[in-house]
Amino acid sequence: xxxxxxxxxxxxxxxxxxxxxxxxxxxxxxxxxxxxxxxxxxxxxxxxxxxxxxxxxxxxxxxxxxxxxxxxxxxxxxxxxxxxxxxxxxxxxxxxxxxxxxxxxxxxxxxxxxxxxxxxxxxxxxxxxxxxxxxxxxxxxxxxxxxxxxxxxxxxxxxxxxxxxxxxxxxxxxxxxxxxxxxxxxxxxxxxxxxxxxxxxxxxxxxxxxxxxxxxxxxxxxxxxxxxxxxxxxxxxxxxxxxxxxxxxxxxxxxxxxxxxxxxxxxxxxxxxxxxxxxxxxxxxxxxxxxxxxxxxxxxxxxxxxxxxxxxxxxxxxxxxxxxxxxxxxxxxxxxxxxxxxxxxxxxxxxxxxxxxxxxxxxxxxxxxxxxxxxxxxxxxxxxxxxxxxxxxxxxxxxxxxxxxxxxxxxxxxxxxxxxxxxxxxxxxxxxxxxxxxxxxxxxxxxxxxxxxxxxxxxxxxx
Length: 463
Ligand SMILES: Nc1ncnc2c1ncn2[C@@H]1O[C@H](COP(=O)(O)OP(=O)(O)OP(=O)(O)O)[C@@H](O)[C@H]1O
Description:
Helices cover 43% and strands 20% of the residues. It is an alpha/beta fold. A hairpin with a 2-residue loop joins strand 7 and strand 8. It is globular. The N and C termini lie far apart (85 Å). The structure holds adenosine-5'-triphosphate. Residues 195-197, 238-244, 342, 363, 417-418, 421 line the site of adenosine-5'-triphosphate.
């Protein structure tokens, strides 16, 4: 300790900006790195150096994805232990090895600072709450001594790489909170084969996307000054796989998906959200029929956008607002837009014209072929589970037979794939029971649907 106080301030400055040089010599005099670092910093303050400590700082805002990157890195490297002020939260997102753990806890640094070594450099990590309009928002700053921010960039690059490694074969879903994007979760990429659709339609959409993503296509768009983006409209009754298919597409393209629920939006928020979209992503606009978009321009093509605005009777997304973000400057290139609706007949032609919607795909209630595929999809054993050569052929034959009987019992275009799947899940342990109880399920669901229809009809008449 006596030694330390004899070190001149410029030498300490020099020492701190070097990878572990002088600090190495003195560290044994302290019980841990934080004490050592604190001593140095205090020492600086008390020495009245005349010139302030030269330092470079990297700041990270709460709503930027770099925040998740650095937090994950700090946590993965056990550095949250170094923080003297930590926060606890129930980990709802990260998978734990023990799926039975109820409400697993996760810790992270909270307001305050700590020091850590990175590639033999001493860095400080600090969280503060800063005023942003009407509320305070967390901000992280990482500081190193010295004028060069190179080591901070290196750290960020490491954080980014580790973060992306953890997201391999995953689809990250972003949802909106007010007017900013929030990472909701990262789910295993859903294979396209798990969404059961009319094969022709599925193929048509996939071919279109493939063609769009071809580098030659991009050049063509550019040569013709056409914005490089593609729009799809997926329409059909609830539970037919529109959202699931959109997620699968994002997974197949290794893109993140940004989901907007139109009913909970207004023009301003939608505009802000589109402005904050990254390049190269899938944007999913759900239930586009549910807003001002349902008000048609009518036959008068002369209607101006401001007419549409004034016609809108409630706060929400107006048709002009929606068209503006789809075409406007904040509409990023290199993106795939998917719009979904249960009511395509309510949509304005302006919204679905080519350029905004390039392909429309109808999702339908289960027909025979789909019911058959769903049955096999639910009950087919994974390859390794067949119990030996020879067994596989027999099991396949039996499965096909059961699927055929099941298919004959399910009426066509009455039940959604979601309903069929929910029923089969009840008999996951017994494919034969699923067939045996099928008639009863069909009768019950029929009745339920009739009652619901009658109630809706009555409600509409009273309304
Ligand atoms: N065609 C399908 N193939 C496989 N699974 C499906 C299909 N349709 C629905 N499902 C299953 O049913 C559930 C609901 O599906 P999904 O949310 O994709 O339907 P949707 O058409 O988007 O419904 P909504 O119009 O109500 O938003 C999901 O768990 C999904 O896995």
